[in-house]
Amino acid sequence: MKQTPHSRKQALLLTTTLALGTFVTFQGEALASCTLTTAPNTYTCAGANTTPQPFFIGANDPTYTTSAGYGVVLTGPTSAFLGAVPLAGSGAITYTDSNGSLIDTTAATAFGGPVNGLYILIGKDLPGDPASLILRSNGNFKASGNAVTFGGYGGQPESGVLDAQFTGTIESTPRTSSTATVPPCPVT
């Protein structure tokens, strides 16, 4: 498809609108099932949820934990943009689920496509504190999209670590994609 100056402007406008809309819409206090439990950066995710959780940006070095009974199960059409549980933060992010939480989007669609489960967006390095993710979960992740997704937005240098340990199940429905993929690597 040949791009014209007009189509490039439309694409830029759409991209800018989506990015700005995400920024404006999701800033602020804890929303939905994750709430601040210990200031300034410890959050607890609680409750059985049947709607996608809003994109939640924690304070620097956020720690997310689950309480007994926490989970998100989505069915039918939904507005889950990034995933059922999208979380973010800068510095070291910790996500701990020792309650066997269920994140399930196998029966859900968003905008006509599959829905991701847990989505963690790793932010920028902080002074003396590299952008990192430490994830410990005995939960179960089942998705029509990617069951667990890690992304980054911090730029260079990203010098932290990704340390993920799963003892529950991770299931994604096979699908085709036009994006580049990375070969599978072992996850402990």
User: What's the β-strand tally?
Assistant: 15
The string of secondary-structure elements, in order, is: HEEEEEEEEEEEEEEE
> What is the topology, as strand order, of the major beta sheet?
1-2-5-8-11-14
Main β-sheet, in a few words? 6 strands, mixed
Strand content: 35-45%
Q: Gap between N and C termini, in Å? A: 42 Å
Average pLDDT, rounded to a whole number, is 75
Q: Which regions contain 5 or more consecutive residues with pLDDT less than 50?
A: 1-32, 176-188
Shape: globular
- Fraction in helix: 10-25%
Rg calc: 17 Å
Structural class: mainly beta
Care to describe what's here?
It is built from one helix and 15 strands; from the N terminus they run H-E-E-E-E-E-E-E-E-E-E-E-E-E-E-E. The longest helix has 22 residues, at 5-26. It has one helix at 5-26; strands at residues 34-38, 42-45, 48-49, 56-57, 63-66, 71-78, 85-89, 92-97, 102-110, 118-122, 132-137, 140-143, 148-152, 162-166, 170-172. The protein is mainly β and 188 residues long. The protein is globular. The strands form three sheets. A six-stranded mixed beta sheet has the order 1-2-5-8-11-14, with no helix packed on it. Strand 1 (34-38) and strand 2 form a beta hairpin.
Ordered list of secondary-structure elements with their pairings:
Blueprint: H1 5-26, E1 34-38, E2 42-45, E3 48-49, E4 56-57, E5 63-66, E6 71-78, E7 85-89, E8 92-97, E9 102-110, E10 118-122, E11 132-137, E12 140-143, E13 148-152, E14 162-166, E15 170-172
Parallel strand pairs: 2-5, 3-6, 4-7, 5-8, 6-9, 7-10, 8-11, 9-12, 10-13, 11-14, 12-15
Antiparallel strand pairs: 1-2
